[in-house]
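Work Package 4 report. The design task specified in the project plan requires that, given a folded chain encoded as C-alpha cells, an amino acid be chosen for each position. We show below one input record used in the internal validation round.
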C-alpha cells in the first residue's frame, strides 16, 4: 500500500526510517501488504538524502495520488497541517499524526470529517511519544468508567525538576542543561509554562470522557516558580515535585482539567519517573490505577507510534474504526479552584502562631537553612479559592497542589 509523509523533520524522517527498517514486521501486521512511501512533503531541500526522488513541495501531489491511502502528518503546528489534513480526510484518505497542537485545537472537526468520508484519523503519537496510551484508553479500558487521569506529560520539565531534586541544581542551570542536551528548545516557553502538557491534557480528557476539551478551558501553570527551597521542604516529607496534567470526573456533564506543579508522595508510581521520561496514570472504577510509562518524545519512539497508527489505518481501509469524541461546551470544564478540594503546600513569610490561628493544626515542614521568619506547611483538604481567602494578608512565597495520585 502506498503511503505519504508530510514533514521530514525529526519525527517524519523517523517514520520513513521505521517503515523501511521494519518492513517484514509491518507486512505481517497489515495482513501481507507492505507500506511503500510514495511521497515526502517538505518545503526544504535535502540534497544527498537517499529518498531524494520522493520529495515534493506540492501538497497536491499527495492529494491527487489515488494510490496513496494513508498519510502521516508530522509537520507540527495548526496551519497548514489542518487544511492539508482536512482535504485528505474529505478525499477519503486516512491520516495519522503526532501533532498534539492540531489534535487539541481541531481534533473534533477532523474526527467529524473522517466520520463523514469513512476514513480514519488516528493520533497515538500525539500524547506520550512512544508510550501507548490513546489505544489502551479507547479499547483496553473501555469497560471502565474513568475517574481521573494524572500524567507527567512533558519530558523537558521532568528533566529540569529531576536535576533540581537529585543534584540540587537551580532552575536556570537545569534549564540550560536541558537546552544543551537538546531536550529544550531555544525558546522553552511551551514546555516550562505548561502549554505542551496542556495540549496533551485536552486530548486525554476528550478521549476519556467523550467531549472535546480545548486548551483555553484548561487552567495551566508551569514550573518557573519552583525553587530549591521548595524542593527541600517537600523532600522532608518524602515527596517530590512534578509537573502534572490532572483530569477529574465530576459528572457526565462536568469535568475538571488543569496543569500545575504538584507534590507527589514517594509511594506513588509517578514519584519515581525521572529525567525525560513520561508516565500517565489512569484511574478506572473497575481496574483501579494503571500506569503507562516510557519515552515521551524522541525520533524513533514517536515514529514507532506514528507507524503503528499507519498499520492500523491500513488494516481498516475498508471499514471505519469506532473512535473519537463529540462536541464539548463552554461550561463543560469547571473552575477547579471553586470545586475541587485537595491539600496544598504553602511557603510564606510568617510565623507558626499566625498560621495556626488561620488554619488550625497543619503539618509544618522544615529544611536546612530555614529562615526564622519563614514557614512551610501542608493544609487540610480545601478548594483553592478557600485557601486564597485564608491567606489574604499573608506574605505568600509559593503554593503547590498536593495530589492524591
Amino acid at each position: 500500500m502506498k503511503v505519504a509523509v508530510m514533514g521530514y523533520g525529526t519525527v517524519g524522517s523517523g517514520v520513513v526510517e521505521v517503515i523501511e527498517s521494519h518492513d517484514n514486521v509491518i507486512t505481517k501486521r497489515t495482513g501481507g501488504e507492505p507500506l511503500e512511501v510514495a511521497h515526502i512533503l517538505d518545503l526544504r531541500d535535502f540534497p544527498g538524502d537517499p529518498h531524494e526522488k520522493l520529495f515534493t513541495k506540492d501538497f497536491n501531489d499527495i492529494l491527487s495520488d489515488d494510490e496513496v491511502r494513508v498519510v502521516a502528518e508530522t509537520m507540527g503546528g495548526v496551519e497548514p497541517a489542518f487544511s492539508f489534513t482536512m482535504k485528505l480526510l474529505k478525499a477519503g484518505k486516512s491520516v495519522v499524526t503526532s501533532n498534539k497542537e492540531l489534535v487539541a485545537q481541531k481534533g473534533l472537526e477532523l474526527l467529524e470529517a473522517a466520520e463523514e468520508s469513512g476514513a480514519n484519523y488516528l493520533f497515538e503519537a500525539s500524547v506520550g511519544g512512544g508510550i501507548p496510551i490513546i489505544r489502551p484508553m479507547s479499547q483496553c479500558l473501555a469497560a471502565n468508567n474513568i475517574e481521573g487521569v494524572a500524567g507527567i506529560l512533558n519530558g523537558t520539565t521532568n528533566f529540569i525538576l529531576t536535576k533540581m531534586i537529585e543534584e540540587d541544581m537551580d532552575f536556570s542551570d537545569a534549564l540550560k542543561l536541558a537546552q544543551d542536551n537538546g531536550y529544550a528548545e531555544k525558546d522553552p516557553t511551551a514546555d516550562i509554562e505548561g502549554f505542551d502538557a496542556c495540549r496533551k491534557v485536552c486530548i486525554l480528557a476528550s478521549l476519556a470522557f467523550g467531549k472535546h476539551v480545548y486548551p483555553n478551558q484548561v487552567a495551566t501553570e508551569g514550573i518557573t516558580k519552583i525553587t530549591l527551597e521548595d524542593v527541600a521542604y517537600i523532600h522532608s516529607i518524602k515527596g517530590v515535585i512534578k509537573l502534572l496534567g490532572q483530569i477529574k470526573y465530576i459528572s457526565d456533564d462536568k469535568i475538571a482539567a488543569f496543569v500545575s506543579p504538584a507534590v507527589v508522595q514517594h509511594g506513588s508510581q509517578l514519584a519515581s519517573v525521572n529525567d525525560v521520561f513520561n508516565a500517565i496514570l489512569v484511574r478506572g472504577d473497575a481496574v483501579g490505577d494503571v500506569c503507562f510509562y516510557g519515552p515521551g518524545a524522541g525520533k524513533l519512539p514517536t515514529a514507532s507510534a506514528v507507524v503503528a497508527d499507519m498499520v492500523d489505518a491500513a488494516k481498516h481501509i475498508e471499514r471505519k474504526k469506532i473512535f473519537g469524541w463529540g462536541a464539548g461546551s463552554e461550561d463543560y470544564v469547571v473552575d477547579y479552584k471553586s470545586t475541587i478540594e485537595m491539600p496544598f503546600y504553602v511557603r510564606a513569610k510568617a510565623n507558626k502562631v499566625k498560621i495556626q490561628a488561620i488554619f488550625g493544626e497543619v503539618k509544618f515542614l522544615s529544611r536546612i537553612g530555614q529562615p526564622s521568619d519563614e514557614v512551610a506547611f501542608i493544609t487540610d483538604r480545601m478548594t483553592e479559592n478557600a485557601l486564597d481567602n485564608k491567606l489574604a494578608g499573608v506574605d505568600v512565597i509559593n503554593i503547590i497542589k498536593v495530589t492524591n495520585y
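The chain is about 35% helix and 25% strand. Validation will be extended to a larger panel in the next phase.
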